[in-house]
Amino acid sequence: MFRPKTSGFLLFLFLMSAVVIISIQRIQMTCEARDNEMNVRLKDIHQNIEQSLKNCYTTTVSLALSIDDEGVPQNFDLVGKKLLQSNPIASAIQLVPNGVIKYIYPIKGNEAAMNLDILGSNHLQEEAKKSIETQKIYFAGPLKLAQGGTGIVGRLPVYNGNKFWGFSAVVIKLENLLNVPVINLMDKSKYEFQFSKTNPISNKEEFFLPSKTDLYKSYYKYINIPDSDWNLYLIDKKPFAIYNEIIFRFFLGLIISIVLGVFTSKLLKKPKELELLLKEQEEKLLGNEMKFKSIFDQSAIGFALIDANSGDLIEANNKFCEMLDYTCDEIKEKGIVSLTHPEDLYKSTLNFKRLREGKIKEYSAEKRYITKSGKLIWLNLTVSRLWESNKKHSTNIVFIKDITLRKEALALIEKSETRFKSIFENSPLPLWEEDFSAVKNHLIELDLMNKNPEIVYSFFNENPEELYKCISLVKIIDVNNECLNLHKVKNKALLLENLNNLIDSESFDAIKQQLVAISQNVKQFSIDSRIKNMKGQYRDINLKWNIIEGYEDSLERVILSTQDITERKDSEKAILNSQQYIKSLVDTIDGIVWEYDIETLACNFISKKVKQILGYSVKEWMESPTFWQDHIHPEDRELALELSDSATKQKTNIDYEYRMITKSGEIVWIRDIAGFVFEGDKAVSCRGIMVDITLMKEAEKNLNHSLYLVTEQNQRLLNFSYIVSHNLRSHTSNIESIISLIESAESEDERNEMMHLLKSVSDSLDETMSHLNQVVNINTNISLMTTPLSLNTYITKTKDILSEQIHLNEVSFITNFPDDTVINYNPAYLESIIYNLISNAIRYRHPERKPVITIQCYKENNKDVIEISDNGIGIDLVRNGDKIFGMYKTFSNNKDSRGIGLFITKNQIEAMGGSISVYSEPNIGTTFKIHTK
Amino acid sequence: MKKKIIWIIDDDAIYQKIIEKIIKKSGVISSHTSFSNGNEAINTLKNTLEDNKQLPDIILLDINMPVMDGWEFMEEIKYLKSKIDKRIIIYMVSSSIAPEDKNKSKTFTDIYSYIPKPVSVNDLIAIVSNE
């Protein structure tokens, strides 16, 4: 048996196949009919046109016969008239000797064609030659006629004695050719007629009748006309019209197929559904019976049927038997009453009697029974009367549930509750059992639940009355003894009575925080707060609460602890005070106290002094792990890091100095003293202090400079003393020797000679004393007067003094400084210095060239520098560099060399706080640079 | 005692005259030559290297002199020593009491001794005797 849907579908397929086959056959038949009709019509047209053309052939042959043997037509007009009368479609006849139209009938209206050279015309000769080639009549055209209109020309080649004479031609207007009855009678709405010819020049098919139909997209039939290369087309104007009816019928068939298919399917379904319904009812009935049986037998609760009068067991299910550990028969034999605990028997009997008497309809009882093994079990019985229609009440049905475990659990819970109550009461922590449900409901009313915590907190700040309201809504279920101790009250009633007095304003913030927590559905909460006990003492507490499991939504049971942390807080405060004291102490130390972690090398602490000494804040220092090394002076960084690393590796104390760059870019000298903090044997951190020693360093620098000056002065004095000693001793030793020689002189002449020598020594000594005096004067002038001096004036002055030597030696000067250059100097010293250097330049001139002295003045390190260069003999500084400025140091054979000029010059410059340097090369020249202070 | 040839190298003209008188008085010097700086003495030395009769036995050398001082002379004579086949005793004679001059003279092994001016007749006799 097929299913209804399948049967319906198969019927649909069958009907559809029939519809398709019928449709295809219908299309074929319609097409054949159309082809037949078109063929018949086309054949008729063809026959009509062919007949017309044959008439034209006859006309041309008749016309050709009018040509005599000389090739001259006889009675042309008469013949022509008769021929035209016999051929109604011809509009003119022509004789065309040698391809030129020479004879036309009728001439009227055809004058334009006269003398037209057919064979000489490009577009006419092709078709004209075809008739010559075939020696048959050939219908040329359709073409534009010289005499006007469109027409065709039938040309028959005429031969005179086997020699081509010309053409006998007939001219037919196209409309005359096609004016046949068959075409005229044709249904124009259905068919269209077309006339074409393949252009002999372009080889393209040309159509001559106006048409709106695209031939190549239409259905058509055509036929070829001989002797002309014409095609006659018959075009079906509505080629797809035949399909419209077919499509309509096809869809009609499709709809009928679908309807019949669906109908069949529905029809077949009905008995099946009825069959299924029946089967379902049967199964349901069977199931109910089985279910009842299995419920009775396999139920988790016991069932029993009891005789309503005797109380005897009629039937019991397995579960009930299992509960008592007896078989059903054993229970029947022993009787229910004997298995009931004696203490529950009376109450059970009483209920049973009332049920039997109809005073109650059912009853429930929890009773104890004794099992086969003697074990006591608790059973919950629900006994009701079992009614059967039209029958007297005779049976009770009993539902039995074993509640032994529940009874035992209840006993355990009671025991446990007692124990937990004892724990609660005797807990060393103050405990509260509270109910926040009203508070939560009020928060819901205030639309504060799940709102931003800050909004909730602000609300209670701005609405203190709502805060009090919420406090009043907290229900205290119970408190333990430790609470009484904390609040210094004697009993719970007193505590609850005075609770409002115990809430101190200092605890308001903690209460607001709790309300915020409730609004955020927090399940656990902890906060440090403060309470006032009944004695008016403040106690710090740590308040914690947990919502008891199962009450997370309602908040009906919340357990709170308020641990007294007053002592801990006091200790913390003491520690905090101590820390603050140490911090304050550290911050007052005149140095940056710091601590680094050895493991992480992270800065643990930096004192506020960093702001004062380096200009950076503590935050700026702490934010950068490499702050310290980044701000060490670049010149000191490498050494400082090296020393620091070395100390860190060896865990030794370190005391070193380096420079750091302040925030404003200044340089600060730091003395860093650091040590390590050990925990056991392990160094955990490095602590130190960075002291600003910039002032000390500057003082040290000044001291060093002073020391340098003093040392230098001492050295100069010592040198000077040696010089003095040497110079004086050289004279005194000479005097001593001379005196000795005078004493031992053997003659007066000898004595006189010695005396003369003694005078020379005296003069020399005088000169030495004079030089020494000069030097002493220079060095003892502590505060030499300085004044702005025109350098140019002093150069000119020197030139004047030395004018004779300058002229004699042809000395030239180059001065590279502005005329108004001014130097702050001592006038006498400036004159002396310039004189000594210029006179030296002339004295030590090169023998082979004229002396050129260049004088420049410029700034170097913001100080005036006077530079005097010459092109003289130069000095070998390698040999004589150390004694060039020494007293009586000469290194040439120049008779004027005294070795005193440069010595005096150097002393004068140094006395003014400046310095002199020399650059020279033998045979090139010498440059002296005077650096002013 | 054989008389000695002595060279006095000193730029002090008065001292040169005095030492000539003392040489005469001492009677222990056969000939003496004075030079006003080290350079003159070195040049003469170079010309008389192989003539031991011309070469001095003793040189009294001043420190501070122009052109070539006593120290420079000592540096120059180092290069000529190998060419000289005669023992020349050099005394540094100076008015300087600077310790560095005295100490510096000790660094030259060719300097026999440092004698502070003035040089007496007895000193000269002692110098010759020491030789």
From TrEMBL, chain B:
PROSITE patterns: RESPONSE_REGULATORY. GO terms for biological process: phosphorelay signal transduction system. SMART domains: REC. The modification 4-aspartylphosphate is found at D62. It holds the Pfam family Response_reg. The keyword Transmembrane helix does not apply. Signal peptide: none annotated. Keywords: Phosphoprotein. It comes from the Bacteria. Residues 5-131 form the Response regulatory domain. The keyword ATP-binding does not apply. This is Response regulator. It comes from Flavobacterium alvei.
